[in-house]
Write a structure and sequence with these properties.
- The protein contains 30 helices and 27 strands.
- The protein is α/β, with parallel strands linked by helices and about 900 residues long.
- The chain folds into 7 domains: about 100 residues, MutS, DNA mismatch repair protein, domain I (3-Layer(aba) Sandwich); about 130 residues, Nucleotidyltransferase, domain 5; about 160 residues, MutS, DNA mismatch repair protein, Chain A, domain 3, CATH 1.10.1420.10; about 100 residues, MutS, DNA mismatch repair protein, Chain A, domain 3 (Orthogonal Bundle); about 210 residues, Rossmann fold; about 60 residues, no CATH class; about 35 residues.
- The strands form 5 sheets. Strands 13-23-24-25-21-26-27 form a 7-stranded mixed sheet, with helices on both faces. Strands 3-4-2-1-5-6 form a 6-stranded mixed sheet, sandwiched between helices.
- Helix 12 crosses helix 19, helix 23 crosses helix 28 and helix 29 runs antiparallel to helix 30.
- The longest helix has about 35 residues.
- The chain starts with 8 loop residues before the first helix and ends with a helix.
């Protein structure tokens, strides 16, 4: 007969809760520990490095178990979330002291990579966006929400546009409709943490109503999103997901902003990576945004990253930012006064979100009070100037004097505890009953001190002391050496190795008074605190507007500060087509250069009439890639509203920045360097406009020489001859044949990055000069890179032999319709492009390598009359060749 076992009541409760959240690790509160069971325990123990054990689960059964103390949740929860796990926090919903039997438990919060409120999980200067994607019939809708700040954005458009927005805002988690897995992977790849929801969650009608209810409006017209039906479907799904994850207190989400592709510069994921905007391609956190960041508040740092990912197109908005930056660069005293106040302002956005959730800590309220004081002073500073831009910014700030004054009146300036549950937070004078109870508690402790002194004198026990524990309250402890002096009226409660503990009627009376007072004090403090939070929740909308204004000013003072530090200049922006940068510098390389070294500046001039495409040649390591990147970054900085690293810069506003710089394999997805290069290049050519800037570096190097030349040539032709979009282009290449294009395409101009050869060694001058070059200095670079001397020497011999055979350091394809030198190929490369489909290979003849062994084999075969050879003679000659080859 099969043996049956019965689950314990605790495990029955666990499994019933786990069934609701099967895909999350369930932290199950048991007494003073959070426990995990079964598969969750195995996962948690591996991620957290905690012990995995077993516990009984009824007769003849066991279950894996791993846990940690409840007070360590701030240490362990972030590790689980950063490992990509969803975590359901299950608390005891009743006081175990007041309940007989099993304590009621329930999930109070589901923490996911995209939904988190705790500072221990969030990064100060980085948004944590939850995204939602809805594939509609005509468009794709997308929404982004950072629950920790209340920022809520919506947009819709093509998959390519949504992909760009995803790259710009880098969501930590993406929601989409179940059944759309293939479509999502095709559009956005597999690099996002995703969660699938049922189809009904994306109902437009339901979600439109849900959004109106959240914002307290009758329609969404006031937000400019009323016509974005697919975007509304995506945005409503975000609110549904917050309910599902037990985040229902979201009063700080007060508006929805539209992201219109006509408002921002197009920067796709390839450009973000190639320009290293947020991290270097080496994986270190020293990207462009980090290098230029001089913000003083977390919200300013987050806004700076958004401005970096989404520079603006409107010249008026850019000029408005530049005016404030210029004022702060000219007036050092004003700039210092502004910075002094901004530095005292805390993270108003995230404090606001925790107020809405009822999870704000006492010391955060003190920080809010201090921040509002600084905000008021900051507004006064801006109002004291004669600058209209600062006056306009000051008008958007409300220092919330009533909020600040109430916080100052009701919260201790330095609370004893940072948890209201422990008390010591509400100031004196707020509640008369609380003040009376505090006097009782304080007086009671004084009485206890007097009791200790009195009993010590009366009994003659000098070491006697009155103490407290949770088991039997206040007691008198006497060491064994003096226990014969204990009065008979004392009641013994506990015997220790070296002492005994007693209680008295008098102690019990005072214990009741003191403990009763302390319990009542906690109840009153929590009531007052809850009332205060409700009052603060009414000011969340104003608080968020203040936060936005402070963040904006923080970014502008950051621009001003780095402009002064690095000698940046104000760019001139207009609606024209000219990009004229004089003595431009790379903002990141310049900042990170060793002390004593100076960055070599360069000029770049591009327009749609005379010099649309700059063809730049030069050896590797000469600075071609840096020149391309610095041009893009200078344009990007200008359209962020920042001063730029140059002597002067005239920028005709750019609507799209495309870059193809450097190699980046995607081998894990089966894509080679060349395939990635072609995918990025195709994206560029399919999306250019008349105001685009295109930066291409070493296109075609991932394939054979003539394939590469053909592809590069055809791309330049396409960019030059496009009927509607004369995209301004910098094209860096090691294919010197492309210099011929200047003769054939009037808006293509040749440039080179200069080097100097001294004693068989090259010196990189890193200066851009007019005209092309035919020398690549590859062997010199190999020597500088530390290539073994034998390899370098052999390369030199081979190069010399090739020069002897073909001239001009060139290698020739052996199976083309007609054999030509590379110089001839350079002159006729256009014809080679047209004939490419008729070429049946570009293989080198082995007899042209001038290897001594191959030369002997060639000489032995050269004079043979194959038609006159007998089979025996042929075999003998073949045997001689084997001997020469050493086979």
């Amino acid at each position: 007969m099969e043996k049956k076992y019965v689950e314990t009541p605790l495990m029955k409760q666990y499994y019933s809760i786990k069934a609701v959240h099967p895909d999350a690790i369930l932290l199950f509160r048991v007494g003073d520990f959070y426990e995990t069971f079964g598969e969750d325990a195995i996962k948690a123990s591996g991620i957290l490095g905690i012990t995995l054990t077993r516990r009984a689960n009824g007769a003849a059964s066991y279950v894996e178990l791993a846990g940690f103390p409840y007070h360590a949740i701030d240490t362990y929860l972030p590790k689980l979330v950063r490992a990509g796990e969803r975590v359901a926090v299950c608390e005891q919903l009743e006081d175990p002291k007041t309940v007989k039997g099993l304590v009621k438990r329930g999930v109070i919060e589901l923490v996911t990579p995209g939904v988190a409120l705790g500072d221990n999980i969030l990064t100060n200067k980085e948004n944590t966006y939850l995204a939602s994607v809805y594939f509609g019939r005509r468009n794709t809708g997308v929404a982004f929400l950072d629950i920790s700040t209340g920022e809520f954005y919506v947009a819709e458009g093509t998959d390519a546009y949504v992909d760009k927005l995803m790259a710009n805002l880098a969501p930590k988690e993406v929601l989409f409709r179940r059944g759309c897995e293939d479509r999502f992977a095709e559009a956005f790849g597999s690099g996002y943490y995703t969660y699938r929801l049922d189809d009904w969650v994306f109902s437009e009608e339901v979600n439109r109503e849900k959004l109106c209810r959240q914002f307290g409006t009758r329609s969404l017209k006031g937000f400019g999103v009323d016509q974005l039906s697919d975007g509304i479907s995506a945005a409503g799904a975000v609110l549904h997901y917050l309910e599902f994850t037990e985040h229902r207190d979201i009063a700080h989400i007060t508006s929805l902003s539209r992201l219109d592709q006509n408002d921002f510069v197009w920067i796709d994921k390839f450009t973000i990576r190639n320009l290293e905007l947020f991290s270097s391609n080496g994986g270190r956190r020293c990207g462009f945004a980090d290098v230029i960041d001089r913000t003083l508040t977390p919200m300013g740092g987050r806004l700076l990253k958004r401005w970096t990912a989404m520079p603006v197109l409107r010249v008026e908005e850019i000029e408005s930012r530049l005016d404030v930056v210029e004022l702060l660069t000219r007036d050092a005293d004003l700039a210092e006064a502004v910075r002094e106040q901004i530095a005292q302002i805390g993270d108003l956005e995230r404090i606001g979100s925790r107020i809405a959730a009822g999870r704000v800590a006492p010391r955060e309220l003190v920080q809010l009070k201090n921040s509002l004081t600084a905000v008021e002073t900051l507004r006064a500073i801006m109002e004291s100037t004669d600058d209209d831009r600062l006056h306009a910014l000051a008008a958007t700030i409300d220092p919330l004097a009533a909020v600040r004054d109430r916080l100052a009146r009701e919260i201790w300036p330095d609370p004893q505890n940072n948890q209201i549950q422990k008390g010591g937070v509400i100031a004196d004078g707020v509640d008369p009953e609380l003040d009376d109870l505090r006097r009782i508690a304080l007086h009671g402790r004084d009485v206890l001190v007097r009791i200790q002194q009195r009993e010590s004198e009366q009994t003659g026990i000098p070491s006697l002391k009155v103490s407290y524990n949770n088991v039997f309250g206040y007691y008198i402890e006497v060491r064994n050496a003096h226990k014969d002096k204990v009065p008979p009226t004392w009641i013994r409660k506990q015997t220790l190795a070296n002492a005994e503990r007693y209680i008295t009627e008098e102690l019990k009376e005072y214990e009741e008074k003191i403990l009763g007072a302390e319990e009542k004090m906690l109840v009153i403090e929590q009531r007052i605190y809850a009332e205060l939070i409700r009052f603060l929740a009414g000011a969340l909308g104003v608080l968020q507007r203040d936060a936005a204004s402070v963040a904006r000013l923080d970014c502008l003072q950051s621009f001003a500060r780095i402009a002064c530090e690095r000698r940046y200049v104000r760019p001139v922006l207009d609606e024209g087509s000219v990009i004229d940068i004089r003595r431009g510098r790379h903002p990141v390389i310049e900042t990170l250069m060793p002390v004593g070294e100076e960055y070599v500046p360069n000029d770049v001039l591009l327009d749609g009439k005379d010099q649309q495409i700059m063809m730049i040649t030069g050896p590797n390591m000469s600075g071609k890639s840096a020149l391309l990147r610095q041009t893009a970054l200078i344009i990007l900085m200008a359209q962020m509203g920042s001063f730029v690293p140059a002597e002067s810069a005239h920028i005709g506003v750019v609507d799209k920045i495309f870059t193809r710089v450097g190699a980046s394999d995607n081998i894990s997805q089966g894509e080679s360097t060349f395939m990635v290069e072609m995918l990025e290049s195709a994206s560029i050519l399919n999306n250019i406009s008349d105001r685009s800037i295109v930066l291409l570096d070493e296109i075609g190097r991932g394939t054979s020489t003539y394939d590469g030349i053909s592809i590069a040539w055809a791309m330049v032709e396409y960019l030059h001859n496009h009927p509607t979009a004369r995209a301004k282009t910098l094209f860096a290449t090691h294919y010197h044949e492309l210099n011929e294009m200047e003769r054939m395409c009037p808006r293509v101009k040749n440039y080179h990055v200069s080097v100097k050869e001294v004693d068989n060694t090259i010196v990189f001058l890193r200066k851009l000069e007019r005209g092309g070059t035919e020398h690549s200095f590859g062997i010199h670079v190999a020597r500088m890179a530390g290539m073994p001397a034998g390899v370098v020497a052999r390369a030199g011999e081979i190069l010399k032999n090739l020069e002897h055979v073909y001239g001009n350091n060139e290698i020739v394809p052996s199976r083309t319709p007609r054999v030509r030198s590379r110089r001839a190929a350079a002159q006729g490369v256009r014809e080679a492009v047209e004939e490419a489909d008729r070429m049946d290979g570009m293989q080198l003849s082995m007899f042209r390598l001038d290897d001594p062994v191959l030369v002997q084999i060639r000489d032995r075969i050269k004079g043979l009359d194959l038609d006159a050879l007998t089979p025996i003679e042929a075999l003998n000659i073949l045997n001689q060749i084997k001997g020469i080859a050493g086979i």
